[in-house]
Amino acid sequence: MNPKRKKRLLLVGGLVCGLSLAVGLSLMALRDNINLFYTPSDIAAGLAPEERNIRAGGLVEDGSVKRDPASLRVDFMITDMESTVPVVYEGILPDLFREGQGVVALGTMVEGVFHARQVLARHDEEYMPPEVADALERAERLRAVRESGDGEQQDGAGSYRSSSDNGSGYNSAYSSGYGDSDSTDDGDEYKGSAE
Amino acid sequence: MWQWFHKLGSPKWFFDFATRLMPWLAWSTLVLLAVGLVWGLLFAPPDYQQGNSYRIIFIHVPVAYLAQSIYVAMAVAGAVGLVWRMKMADTFIAAIAPVGAALTFLALFTGAVWGKPTWGTWWVWDARLTSMLLLLFLYFGVMALRAAIEDREAAARSVAVLTLIGVVNIPIIKYSVDWWNTLHQPASIKLTSAPAMPPEMFLPLLVMILGFHLLVGWLALARMRNEILERERRTRWVQRWIAQQAGE
Predict the structure, then answer these.
(1) Cβ contacts (< 8 Å) between A122 and chain B: which residues?
(2) A23 within 8 A of B179, measured Cβ to Cβ
(3) Residue B185 is nearest to which of A94, A124, A133, comparing CB atoms?
(4) What are the chain A neighbours of B168 within 8 Å (beta carbons)?
(5) Which chain A residues in 37-56 lie under 8 Å from chain B, judged by CB atoms?
(6) What ranges do the domains of chain B cover?
(7) Which domains does chain A have, with CATH numbers?
């Protein structure tokens, strides 16, 4: 390569590398501000400001949703499997809202209770036909029954799964939990718990 | 001597090459998009959670992919243009930038339409959506900068630098869902692991992704041909070509 081009190539490479470094460092510094929501652990650790508009995100805890029969008021708990935060919300919930679902709520923390003004549903990156979801749920229940009854037949659900597999590797994605997952660092933990 | 030939010869060579390739691209695009749309919209099973509204994935994911890969291609062309002073690199950027902008807009639009029924909102300022909006503005910037500078060489150099600056945004878009917590879910299709969906959903999506790639290839060639004709309008081969077209 002739020296002139070599110099220009170095210049271009240097520009891109230097810029990436600068942007990378600024993003690292702004890390907390870029996160869309606080996790229940963040809130428990006191990272989220009180009585200011924040977003809180996590999974709706199983069995925690209580609807007020007289109004649109809903009480539920959001959890990240480490801490939980009680949420109060009055209004219409998105269609995907259900127990075990990931949600992001906008509102304020007042004395340990999150007063939400808006509740958005998250969904995970996994898609499957309803029949497969049903089959997985049945297998899950079957396994739960077996585990409580007889520990030796634990691999029953496993063989059920492989028989419902259509041949490709997507089964592994299914078995990693269909409930919900979160993009936070401990997302794998959610998946583990859904197993 | 060789360089002189190379410089003058390559637009003409590319023009002929594009002319020959385009019908093939057009037909395969039509077939793939038709098959993918019918398969994805009518035959693929509904999602267990989202029902039929997930079907917008068959448009959303291909256009969002291409919006990003077109920008990377532009940045590569920008680097080639800066280092080797190749005319065709700038021709490519000029031709493809509006296509990239249109696809980025489509990705944002289909995302908003999808977000309303599933998340409960059209828009949220999370890292993925915001960085994607930035990509749209970068495309606008590339187009505006070119239009603002009269001298073609100077415009080419400035635009090339801008494409290289903007390319830093691409990994941010890609990894935004992993680095920060966002409303947008992480990627369903990764090179490193099996797709998070069954083949009866994944295959039509793959067909659509391929189809959109070919469509963009066709659009790039068609627009580059026009760009070449305009830039080379004073050359003898273009004038001969025009005379030939008029004679037909």
Answers:
(1) 119, 183, 185
(2) no
(3) A124
(4) 16, 19-20, 23
(5) 37, 39
(6) 56-239
(7) 37-121 (2.40.50.140)
Cα–Cα distance between A68 and B152 in angstroms, integer? 68
Q: Are B156 and B101 in contact (CB under 8 A)?
A: no
Distance CA A136, CA A159 (A): 12
What single-letter DSSP state applies at residue B207?
H
Q: How many residues does chain A have?
A: 195
pLDDT in tens, chain B (248 residues): 556 446 544 788 889 888 999 999 999 999 999 999 999 999 999 888 888 889 999 999 999 999 999 999 999 999 989 988 888 899 999 999 999 999 999 999 999 999 988 888 999 998 999 999 999 999 999 999 999 999 999 999 999 999 999 999 999 999 998 888 888 988 888 877 788 888 899 999 999 999 999 999 999 999 999 999 999 889 898 999 989 888 87
| Contacts for B39-42: CB closer than 8 Å, 24+ residues apart | B39/B203, B39/B204, B39/B207, B40/B204, B40/B205, B40/B207, B40/B208
Contacts of B57 in chain A (CB under 8 A): 127
ipTM of the complex in this document: 0.73
